[in-house]
Amino acid sequence: MQQILALGLKSMRDDTLRLDYVAANLANAMTPGYKREVTVGVTVPLVNPQFSAMVDGLHAGSSSSAIANSLPPFSPSMLVQADVSVGTLKSTGRGLDLALAGPGYFEVLTEAGPAYTRQGDFRIDGRGRLVTAAGQLVMGQGGEIRLNAAEPVIDAAGNVFESQGAAAAFTDGGSGKALGTGMHPADAQPVARLKVVQFDDPKAIQRQGGGLVQGAGVPTQMKDADIQVRQGYLENSNVSAMQEMVQMIQTMRHFESMQKVAISYDDMTGQAVRKLGDLA
Q1: Hey, where are the domains in the chain?
Q2: Secondary element (H or E) of residue 90
């Protein structure tokens, strides 16, 4: 009979964890490139479970391919994954703002090693290197990217041009209006190419803070044909405030229902104990 109470308490704990992720999504609704986190139900085997083990089980945040190996027997029955759908693109008119209109991540170099981001509000530091807003190096396929021009031109495949000829070819008669991504003269040579990578399991990412993530396994460099860089744009967060509020209301109602189950079961157990005492 303790299993009933354990399941109720376990479900309530899952709900509190789910609310934490909803709150994090809402807090990052305006963060460029942010991918919302969603919780997915997982079937957990319950074979003669111990009450303490069910209540004290650890939370699993592993990828779907590793559930069987990493999910403790009595852990919360949910899996946390990233929603990798692409957010809408917002035009900024700033040449160093870059967005990915498809899958993938920009690779950057941090003090702890390579990390990955879709938050493309880049800039040029005092040494002429392309860096993130926090100062981490934005990596190209040949290493760090050094630029002499303050307004480079970047095509859809991530090729970086900085010559005057290339810049002129990208604009409409000197008006400053970009003709579009992927257009460059045949004789223009890129000075660098952005390193855009992808993960085998894009949903299994771990947040590092500051818009940076790490993925499961070794990332692979994307093919040029699959890269969709948009210069002068930033990707909006894919969080829908209304959707998160609905999720919050549903979770709170479920928590209240499980709370009533636990209280009712506790009352029933108390009455049973009292009756047994009277019979004794």
Answers
A1: 2-84+239-279, 89-235
A2: strand 89-91
